[in-house]
Amino acid sequence: MIRTLEAIVGEINKVKNIIVVGHIMPDGDDISSVLALTMGLEKIGKNVRAVIDDDIPGYLEEFPFVKEKIKSYDCISKFPAELIISVDASSPDRIGRVYDHFKFARSIVIDHHATNTYFGNVNWVDKFGATAQMVLRLNKMLEVEYDEDLATVNLLGIATDTGFFKYSNTDAVVFEDVAWLVKNGGNIGLISNMILENKPLEHLLLYKDFLNEMKIDNNIAYSHITLDMLNKYDILPKDSPSFVGELRSIKGIEVAITFSEGEPNVYHVSMRSKDWFDVSKVAVAFGGGGHPRAAGFSKETDNLEKLEKETVNAIKNLMESYEK
Ligand code: 5GP
Ligand code: MN
Question: Where are the domains of the chain?
């Protein structure tokens, strides 16, 4: 790990103009990693463009520095990037059109997904709870000085990717990093207020409909959110809430799945497991990726029921091969 980090620091020291890119369908860890790395690089005098080739959901868009720093794809069209750093993305398709620019610059991949395809010139893929923890290490190695703002944006990803310090990826290193960030001004109260205590009422109303559509098949719970269901409450697809954690929380459920229509007939499938089942294997089989307890894929189909059946069957088949 130290040698890869040193190689990354060497690449950064050689250049001035850097693109930092996050993944499509951005989550808290992605936004946090992009922001913390961008702000860190700016503090050491680099010229940085932070880009995500997708819409940012409302609850993250309101987070400090997001609107100011993270721009859409167009912002890099004339930027003479010498180096591109991708964070929290496991494969090239996850960074959208920004991957086209890998032809013209050196590239670094920093990610914590075991399903990573190593698509950069230098790849640091490691088993951290959050990519934001890897950015923290890189910033420290670059001798970036932390203030309250940087500590808070860096803390965001560790909080969200560990489910606010309760998932099985919440190890001692997570708490050490969190303690360091809080000592350096990280504001966990602000993060939990903005992420957990800030739900639009429409999302709760939609949740009633989502529960009405829920099906339980042994230890698998699943449901869907279609564009029609979103339209009923004037919710934009980019702001579509994730209820997959609620399904997993049901007693006796090992795997939870949600099917969310983002564009007509295109579904994002989110999977979570509680204790022993590896959902990333199913995600990879369907062309996606992720972690053993949280993974996903996208699929185009005009037959949602069939997609649901295929996904549930794939999970059941793999379950049978486990020796519990
Ligand atoms: P979510 O279900 O919240 O969208 O994603 C759960 C995890 O799976 C995240 O770590 C996310 O990066 C990963 N993931 C979700 N969808 C995809 C996908 O289509 N491709 C890949 N490679 N990873 C995905
Ligand atoms: Mn992550």
Answer: 2-196, 201-323
**How does residue 113 score in pLDDT terms, banded at 50, 70 and 90?**
very high
Residue closest by Cα to atom 15 of ligand 1: 296
- Going from the Cα of 287 to the center of ligand 1, the distance in angstroms, rounded, reads 11
Give the tens place of pLDDT for each residue, 170-199: 999 999 999 999 999 999 999 999 999 999
Residue 220's H or E segment, with its range, is: strand 220-225
Report CA-CA distances (Å) from 122 to 9, 176, 289: 11, 27, 21
The superfamily in CATH containing domain 2-196 is: inorganic pyrophosphatase (n-terminal core) (3.90.1640.10)
Protein residue with its CA nearest to atom 23 in ligand 1: 289
Nearest CA to ligand 1 atom 16: 296
The per-residue pLDDT for 100 is 97
| Residue 57 in contact with ligand 1 by CB distance below 6 A | no
Q: Can you spell out the DSSP letters for 66-129?
A: HHHHEE-GGGGTT---SEEEEES-SSGGGGGGGGGGGGSSEEEEEE--TT----SSEEEE---S
Which of 23, 31, 90, 261 to probe ligand 1 with, by most ligand atoms within 8 A of CB?
Answer: 90
Topology, domain 201-323: Diaminopimelate Epimerase; Chain A, domain 1 (3.10.310)
- Coil, strand, or helix at residue 258? strand
